[in-house]
Amino acid sequence: MTDVAIASTALKDGAAGEELAARVRSELHGAAPDALIVFASSQNDYKSLLTALKAGSGARTLVGCSSAGEFTGETAGTGLTTVIALRASDMRFNATIAKGMSQDREKAAAHLARNFEGMESTDFRYRTALILVDALAGHAEDLVDRLTVATGGMYRFFGGGAGDDAKFERTHVFMNAEMHSDAAVVLEVLSNKPIGIGARHGWTPASGPMRVTETDQASVLSLNVVPAVEAFEDHAAATNQSFDRNNPLPFFLHNIVGVQTDEGHKLRVPLGVGANGGIACAAEVPTGATAHIMSIKPADAADAAASATRDAMEQVERSGHTPKAALFFDCVATRLRLGQDFNNELDAVSAELKGAQFAGFNSYGQIVRSEGQFSGFHNCTAVVCVFPD
Q1: Is 224 helix (H, G, I), strand (E, B) or coil?
Q2: Is 149 strand, coil or helix?
Q3: DSSP labels for 93-148?
Q4: CA gyration radius for the chain?
Q5: Domain regions of the chain by residue span
Q6: Mean pLDDT computed over every residue of the chain
Q7: Burial (0-12, 13-18, 19+ Cβ within 10 Å), 114
Q8: pLDDT above 90 for 122
Q9: Which DSSP helix (H) or strand (E) runs through 200?
Q10: Is 49 in contact with 90 (CB distance < 8 Å)?
Q11: Do 90 and 193 meet the contact criterion of CB atoms below 8 Å apart?
Q12: pLDDT value at position 154?
């Protein structure tokens, strides 16, 4: 049996932690949660927030991250703090953190894997882990790839990149009352009931294929051997859109990069134009890849979130279990592009959950590594994890 408490507040700092802790304990009838997951706006003093939340809730394990939009099935906005508390006698939760991920992902992945209890225990059939990373440190996909190898492919991963209210300056991950940048925190979940994971996006190619001919970390310097910005300018002219090199974000929110893979297009959000005509992206794009400029209709984003939720729900229900609660992550770029229409996406998730509660945040990238899903580190992709009763 899984007990869940979900709460959100516009209060800040210690006051937010105290209110959320009290609401969690009330919804759990005075019991302390086994795991508490928190998503907090960068407007908070994290130390006072986390200290009050951990002490007041009595949570055995607390993980989380800074965010760029926070929501539950009942409320959504920015500048909030949202929590989901889990208490389950037939699940085991274990948190660990790896620091310095920008310098040595192999070391970080090995450290995380060594601390996974499921690597040694055979008491649980299903091994799942929530991964929250400082995406501004870069190399998130490489970390997930290395962690998959370090754990022998025994785990399914989901999660996202911490945010900072779309300032793109500094993000943090949380473990208990501590906060860290250039780090990844992982919540291991061991269970004998299946945990559902779904990931979808509704973007489709709007340009012809282009070869990525030169990159520099997360910047695409050239496409088809010409400065990458020229491809976007040509696409803007061909589709009767406005593109301003000095203020490209309005165009970029509606025209993102899709890297072609065998599973479909992996999305990358462009963030700016460099002096050399390169396009800075929110995550790495491999040299030699085939890419398209992608587009989407507002309704397609909600449809993708609904499909991801159905995928996750079916994984729980086909084994005869009842969905109890969910985590939902989507990109900050999606929220910025959709504005108030982002609520349509939240409504679509809520409808598919059939009364189960959910909480989540707008992230700087989304993580999924699971059989039958579009695996890796993504942008503008809806990721849903469903916990069974």
Answers
A1: coil
A2: helix
A3: EEEEEEE-TTT-HHHHHHHHHHT-GGGT--S-SEEEEEEEE-GGG--HHHHHHHHH
A4: 20
A5: 2-200+300-388, 204-295
A6: 94
A7: exposed
A8: no
A9: strand 196-200
A10: no
A11: yes
A12: 93
The C-alpha atoms of residue 236 and residue 213 are separated, in whole angstroms, by 21
- Is residue 373 predicted with pLDDT exceeding 70? no
Q: What is the structure's pLDDT at 121?
A: 85
State how far the Cα of 106 lies from the Cα of 144, in Å rounded to an integer. Answer: 10
Spatial contact of 228 and 278, defined as CB atoms under 8 Å apart:
yes
Q: CA-based diameter of the chain, in Å?
A: 63
Taking the whole predicted model, whether its pTM rises above 0.70 is answered as yes
Average pLDDT over residues 271-285: 92
Asked which of 280-284, 308-312, 347-351 is least confident by mean pLDDT, the reply is 280-284
Which residues, other chains included, contact 108 with Cβ-Cβ below 8 Å and sequence gap of 6+?
98, 99, 100, 101, 143, 146, 184
Matching residue, tokens 């022998």: 152
Write the pLDDT tens digit of every residue in 184-240.
Answer: 999 999 999 999 999 999 999 999 999 999 999 889 999 999 999 999 999 999 999
Q: Tokens for 23, please give them.
A: 């609401």
Chain mean position to CA 331: 7
309, β-bridge pairs: none
Per-residue model confidence (pLDDT) at position 374: 55
User: Are the C-beta atoms of 174 and 357 separated by less than 8 Å?
Assistant: no
Rounded-to-integer distance, Cα 193 and Cα 83, Å? 23
Cα separation, 304 vs 348, in Å, equals 9
Partnered with residue 94 across adjacent β-strands are 188
H-only helix segments in the chain: 13-27, 46-57, 105-114, 140-150, 228-238, 249-252, 298-317, 332-338, 342-352
Is the pLDDT at 319 greater than 90? The verdict is no
What pLDDT, on a 0 to 100 scale, did the predictor assign at position 43? 97
pLDDT one-digit tens code per residue, 4-17: 999 999 999 999 99
Residue 63: Cβ-neighbour burial (10 angstroms; 0-12, 13-18, 19+):
buried
Burial 315-339 (b: 16+ CB within 10 A, else e): bbbeeebebbbbbbbbbbbbbbbbe
Residue 64 CA to its chain's centroid (Å): 11
User: Which whole number is the average pLDDT over 278-299?
Assistant: 92
